[in-house]
Amino acid sequence: MKKLLPYWLVAPYVVHMLVFVAFPVVFSVVLTFHRWNIISPMEFIGPDNYVRLFKDRLFWQALFNTFRFLLVHIPLQIGIALGLAELLNRTLRGAAFFRAAFFLPVIVSGVVVTILWQQLLSFNSGMLNRLIAGIGLPRVAWLDDPAVAMYSIAIMATWKNVGLYVILFLVGLQTVPPQYYEAADLEGATNWQKFRYITLPMINPTIFTVVVLSTIGGFSLFIEPYIMTEGGPLNSTLSAVMYIYQQAFQYYHMGYSATLGFFFALLILAVVAIQKRYVEQEI
Amino acid sequence: MSRVQLDHIAKAYGNGPRVIRDVNLDIQDKEFVVLVGPSGCGKSTLLRMIAGLEAITDGTLLIGDRRVNDVPPNERDIAMVFQNYALYPHMTVYENMAFGLKLRNMPKTEIKDRVTAAARLLEIENLLDRKPKDMSGGQRQRVAIGRAIVRNPQVFLFDEPLSNLDAKLRGQMRIELQKLHRDLQATMIYVTHDQIEAMTLGNRIVVLRNGDVQQFDTPITLYNQPVNRFVAGFIGTPPMNFLPGRLSGTGPLQFQSDQGAVTLDLSQSVHAPALASFRGHAVTLGIRAEHMSPVPVPGRSMPELTVQADAVEHTGNEALTYFHLDDQRFVARLPADLPLTFGQSFRLFWELDKCHFFDAETELAIR
Ligand SMILES: Nc1ncnc2c1ncn2[C@@H]1O[C@H](COP(=O)(O)OP(=O)(O)O)[C@@H](O)[C@H]1O
Ligand SMILES: [Mg+2]
């Protein structure tokens, strides 16, 4: 009886792991070699799904869209988060208030935030366009212009998530011992030099963490285009995850959707590996 | 010229109390001055004001006859070595030492010359490619000093640079710092809470207490003529023994301890003239452990006491012997070959002329 106790103690975790992680992973890999619409039995079709993936222009467009999103979203998010963290790290009046304020959007439901932004960015009645029109400039089709829509979404997603990264950077900044800056002060270092030669290298572990987290977060872009643009106009905001979702739950192409998901996961893994190689430094 | 003058310097952090009250010091060119005092007395604060890392609340700071109160640190011609070294972990030793020079846009070849020269002086040439984490505490300490040297400043500031090292290394580095001072011919201001470090390194020593300078003198003067009871107790190991008592009001000049364990006839002592005006007053007697001996020295006035040993610490070359007089704990430094053990009674002779007397009220030395 005593010997069994340890197994009982780890059992909940193991069961959870098997049911919600191991089984879905294995099952979806199996699925990639089948055709299945949930209702009829699974039909083995070999590598057909993979062949189809490489010919699927819409999937490649969705991937391209996702990268366009990431290209704006990640630098913007990291730059703004680091800048805000730098400001908050000083003994600023009301720093506690701003810390909370920046974090608020992170914990508000993505659906709510998205609907708010949809109104904000609306072509005719949106506050942003009314401001722009108010100062005599032409209105911008924030969500209706295929060339603009994805970037509007990138800005919105940045606004929603930046608070989390502000907090992460703030923690990173606070681990830098103040003597390093004092030693630099004695050498007459400017604020920029202190940032460049001390802060940046010292918070590299945080930077790497933030880059990876926001990459993974960015790759899973879904709610924002799903609610605001439904992937349009002209599929310009169709994200990879959204396309995978459509394949699974609109067309019931479960096997193909699993194939897309599997390929996409490998792609994220490759991108993170590249980041690990080039962003992470030993200190 | 790198004389450093502090004129009525005071410091308060924010709206807090003054942690440095009114400090006046005139530190000569090429002098090695040590700021010593218990933790929290304001040593670091004072040093950081000289460095320019803390604003000066009140008073005037002159470095080389120039008022530098409002001059940024890098223009004060000073370099500072921090207690925890503050070496940049992501830079090699070479990069650490070159960092400040690079910021000044010094030509690469000159940077190389300077770093190499400093590394040679400190015997760390073989460490130049290492990162701080791959070095011992002593090596890091040298690099930290090297980083100060390459700038070739007129004034070096040290804030407890040896306190993270073990005792043996500390002793070694003390010697090297003395040598460095001779080689570099620069003014050095050195903070420590360790009075042995202060005594061995300083040309002159500033004893600080609660933000006030108690005494600014050579080590020998501090040891022989402490101005008050605090300095007397702070300088010297083991610390000076104290015994509260009173001087006789009439009759022959006598010191009587409060609980009567000790009565000393002072009428023939060197202290008699100074003590005359304190007759009838409460005074504290002070005597150092090394000024008591088991045998009288011929020709000196040495009153005799019989005491009982509470504890004996043999260090090989001497025996620190503890006992009580009244309820005060005393320690005497006795020859190691004296066969004394716990509980044993023995005779002690005091060098009366080496005793100190302090006004019990003001704690000032009576001289
Ligand atoms: N940044 C600070 N803010 C407020 N008080 C401080 C600060 N730094 C030091 N103090 C106070 O000033 C006094 C002197 O401190 P410090 O100069 O560090 O002493 P020491 O170096 O002699 O140990 C202490 O009472 C300490 O609490
Ligand atoms: Mg200190």
Automatic annotation (TrEMBL), chain A:
It is a multi-pass membrane protein. The chain crosses the membrane at residues 7-33, 58-84, 96-117, 148-171, 202-223, 251-274. Residues 63-275 form the ABC transmembrane type-1 domain. Gene3D superfamilies: MetI-like. Its main location: membrane. Keywords: Cell membrane, Membrane, Transmembrane, Transmembrane helix, Transport. The keyword Nucleotide-binding does not apply. One of its GO terms (cellular component) is plasma membrane. One of its GO terms (biological process) is transmembrane transport. InterPro entries: ABC_transporter_permease, MetI-like, MetI-like_sf. Belongs to the binding-protein-dependent transport system permease family. PANTHER family: ABC TRANSPORTER PERMEASE PROTEIN, INNER MEMBRANE ABC TRANSPORTER PERMEASE PROTEIN YCJO. This is Sugar ABC transporter permease. It comes from Arsenicibacter rosenii. The lineage of its organism: Bacteria, Pseudomonadati, Bacteroidota, Cytophagia, Cytophagales.
UniProtKB/TrEMBL annotation, chain B:
One of its GO terms (molecular function) is ABC-type transporter activity. Residues 4-235 form the ABC transporter domain. It comes from the Bacteria. Pfam families: ABC_tran, OB_MalK. One of its GO terms (biological process) is carbohydrate transport. GO terms for cellular component: ATP-binding cassette (ABC) transporter complex, substrate-binding subunit-containing. Transmembrane segments: none annotated. Keywords: ATP-binding, Nucleotide-binding, Transport. This is sn-glycerol-3-phosphate ABC transporter ATP-binding protein UgpC. The gene is ugpC.
